[in-house]
Amino acid sequence: MDTKIASPKPASRREKRTATLTVAPVASQARAVSDGEVKTPLRGALMGLSVESHEPIGKQIFRSLREAIFTGLLAPGTPLSEKEVSEMFQVSRQPVREAFIKLVEAGVLQVLPQRGTFVKRISPRKVREGRFIREAIEAAVVRKAAVAITDAQLAELAANLREQKVAAKVNDTAAFLACDEQFHFLIAQSIDCVAAWETIQDIKAQMDRVRYLSLHEVSPLDLLIRQHALIVSGLKAHDPDAAENAMRAHLREILVSLGPVAQLNPDWFEPDEPEAVRLML
């Protein structure tokens, strides 16, 4: 899976920060850092890794690359090299290869024969498929939570909502999205079914990439916070129907933002392939 290809065609519209969207990847540029070392997009994405961490290096590489792809630091077309990553951290290629394989399985990397491994463009169809599956799972989870959730667990969700508002107030998109992930995790945790949340991590990969691109103009933070608040309201009332309806409406927001985001960033998306049957529960 290693590649020596230096410059496949990167996304041209996303290499500079724009006023419209918050993500500003730099797929083909490099700059000098203070110690004279050239900081490439790949090197920048992995700067937070440490081989001395108690977490296996393969998991660190997977998580950091995944985050860098989702946030746009590594744009579609960016080449990834097993050799470069392994040499950066003086580890064997095996954990790097394992991380690459997981990212391919998640649909965010692609291997082109005789060329190498590159960040893949977003598939609108995979976004819709992921949303369909995620909605089915999270709707069932939130119905169960509406019956079983405790006051202490509701207090955790309320605290999470306050953190979301703080992040939105200071326009901290990364902090908000971390809170968003935690919010959905807490609901699954409230019914002692964290496996439900873990199951959809790869399924929702393409959704997550669109989420980062959609803030703030297409799906403003305040709108998402209001949707979260409605979910909590249904849970607090122990009303399964209200909680489920609020969750479904929230997860369908991606269908509203997908088209405008794709139009604003055509180089980031694959050609659409409509489903034979419309995926809507």
TrEMBL record:
Q: Please tell me the species this chain comes from.
A: Paraburkholderia terrae
Presence of the UniProt keyword Heme in the record: no
State the InterPro entries in the record: GntR_C, TF_FadR/GntR_C, Tscrpt_reg_HTH_GntR, WH-like_DNA-bd_sf, WH_DNA-bd_sf
Q: Could you tell me which PANTHER family the record lists for this protein?
A: HTH-TYPE TRANSCRIPTIONAL REPRESSOR RSPR, TRANSCRIPTIONAL REGULATOR, GNTR FAMILY
Q: Which Gene3D superfamilies match?
A: GntR ligand-binding domain-like (1.20.120.530), Winged helix-like DNA-binding domain superfamily/Winged helix DNA-binding domain (1.10.10.10)
What name appears for this protein in its UniProt entry?
A: GntR family transcriptional regulator
Residues annotated as domain HTH gntR-type: 55-122
Q: Mind listing the UniProt keywords for this protein, alphabetically?
A: DNA-binding, Transcription, Transcription regulation
Which SMART domains does UniProt cross-reference here? FCD, HTH_GNTR
| Coiled-coil positions | none
Pfam name, any one: GntR
Entry GO MF terms:
DNA binding; DNA-binding transcription factor activity
